[in-house]
Amino acid sequence: MGFIWALIIGGIIGWLAGLILGRDVPGGVIGNIIAGFIGAWLGSFILGNWGPVIGGFHLIPALIGAIALVFIVSIILRSMRRSA
């Protein structure tokens, strides 16, 4: 049950990151989950483990990391569309 809860929270974190930036996360729900998980890892690596913990994620660093990840991915995808 803990893994399913982590998937749900990871998806919500990725979705929130996309909403905050006003950009869609590529891949839909799966993309949101991946952005949430990688963003949580990235945010915890850079900012440390602080803030409230939900579903095994430290919420504030995870959200900041997911925002950074969605921003970087959207820039890369935009540059790939222009070059094609």
UniProtKB/TrEMBL annotation:
Keywords: Cell membrane, Membrane, Transmembrane, Transmembrane helix. InterPro entries: Transgly_assoc (IPR007341). GO terms for cellular component: plasma membrane. It is a multi-pass membrane protein. It is found in: Cell membrane. The chain crosses the membrane at residues 6-22, 29-50, 56-77. Belongs to the UPF0410 family. This is GlsB/YeaQ/YmgE family stress response membrane protein. It comes from Cytobacillus praedii.
